[in-house]
Amino acid sequence: MYLGFGVAGIPWFAGLNAGFGYIMGPTGGYLIGFIIAAFFIGFIVDRYIRSRNFIGMLALMLFSTFALIYIPGLIQLYLWMGGSIGFWELLTMAVLPFIAADVIKTIIAAGIASSITPKSAYGREVDAGL
Prior knowledge:
about 65% helix, globular, 6 helices, mainly alpha, single chain
């Protein structure tokens, strides 16, 4: 919904931007990665009870942040820049300045998420009987 409404014109992307062109810009890959990460975390947490504790949630969120969000974001940024930048320059510009804040936000989000998710089976969890 976040991405769909932003593409439809609600200005809630960074800098109060909106529209389809924003998705095609330098940060669009991060937004697409965010959707992939949300589906991945939702799928895992829904299927595995063990992922609902703090450590499990933290691991899922760190993986999602640094693999599922950063990788599509870096690929799109690299392509948007016409491939004219080296790998180290890309990391220096688009990853390194954000690592500390992302780790802190991930720890906070994992704490909140693990505290509000049920710790017992409520559906068809794979590890319900273990």
